[in-house]
Amino acid sequence: MATKAVKVSVYAWEGLDRKGTKVTGELNGHNPALIKAQLRKQGINPTKVRKKSVSIFGGGKKIKPLDIAFFSRQMATMMKAGVPLLQSFDIISEGTENPKFRKLVDDIKHHVASGHSFATALRQHPQYFDDLFCNLVDAGEQAGALESLLDRVATYKEKTESLKAKIKKAMTYPIAVVVVAFVVTGILLVKVVPQFQAIFQGFGADLPAFTLMVISLSEALQSYWYMFLLGLVLAIYIFKRAYRTSENFRNWLDRLVLKIPIIGPLLYKSAVARFARTLSTTFAAGVPLVDALDSVAGATGNIVFKNAVNTVKQDVSTGMQLNFSMRSTGVFPTLAVQMTSIGEESGALDAMLDKVATYYEDEVDNMVDGLTALMEPMIMAVLGVIVGGLVVAMYLPIFKLGSVV
């Protein structure tokens, strides 16, 4: 049964050194009594020890996955250089400017210093270290090759976060431009169209159908703008809630996005890259193939691939070769299946899967660059049609009046 970890807090202290000089500082500890004991060992007579208050705004920047990847790489580098584990924590803690991240590292250090394993200390923070991360560190500790496993974990985290950043880059640009298009259209309908409408009222002639449609849309937006805004906020809320609470909705969305032109192939290749990268890392760490597939299923990030990996796991557990099972699912691309087959036959499955991951990561990178270049003219064309359509609708009556005159 795992021992419940005692919470470590930050204490601000004041005291007198051996020369009677007033000194101050901060220490991490379980309670004020232990802090005072530590200070006395250092030759300081503590006069005041109080728990440091935490800012309501969080006391620092949020810890991002990229911070965890950087932490992994720093640990791997120092362990390879022969720096003791506890000293490595101190070096990382002193080198970071983020108080939240410093507290996380100090907390891990205190868990390890109190007799827990590194993997157990990491499991105290599941919001930052997932099961795959902890299992790989655990395997490294048990095999006596922690520095080697940390290097693999660091590479895995760096590649994974790099892939996520590329996907985010591909999605952010078009979404931002669409939002701007809606804002510009709203301003034109609310501020510009009514000015033209006032001019048209003095014409005494029938307006073109296109102009009437735009004017009706403008009047509706002016009268019921709060309804449009409420509907938009409600739609976003319902979507987020459904995504968070409904597994069926998430599964439906995962299947849908793979069918979207341009975006679908990008997400498909990124899922293949994550599958290959995760399986390569876990298998190379000495984790049995069937157990490794458990970790891989959750790391693919898509229900289609998760179901396929679970099917592969069942087939492999009955003695079927990995490449045969992958081919039978109909989900994995031919290149990945063939490379897996070569890896199984040559006894270098982890190396071949690493090559598959690198290949598809490069494919994703190229697709993101191509998508960005393609989206720019497409988005400009869409904006031109929307804004230009509104302008034409407003000038049509003027053109019509000019032709009559």
What does this structure look like?
Residues 1-5 and 54-58 have low confidence and may be disordered. The longest helix is centred in the C-terminal third of the chain and has 56 residues, at 349-404. Helices cover 74% and strands 6% of the residues. α7 runs antiparallel to α11 (263-284) and α11 runs antiparallel to α16. It has 405 residues and is mostly helical. Strands 2-1-3 form a 3-stranded antiparallel sheet.
Structure, briefly:
With 405 residues, this protein is mainly alpha-helical. The protein contains 16 helices and three strands. The protein has three domains: 43 residues; 95 residues, Type II secretion system (T2SS), domain F (Receptor-associated Protein, Up-down Bundle); 244 residues, Type II secretion system (T2SS), domain F (Receptor-associated Protein), CATH 1.20.81.30.
Secondary-structure map with pairings?
Blueprint: E1 9-16, E2 22-29, H1 32-41, E3 45-51, H2 65-80, H3 85-95, H4 99-113, H5 118-123, H6 131-143, H7 146-200, H8 209-223, H9 225-245, H10 247-257, H11 263-284, H12 289-299, H13 303-317, H14 322-329, H15 334-346, H16 349-404
Antiparallel strand pairs: 1-2, 1-3
Helix pairs in contact: 2-3, 2-7, 3-4, 6-7, 7-8, 7-11, 7-16, 8-16, 11-12, 11-16, 12-13, 13-14, 14-15, 15-16
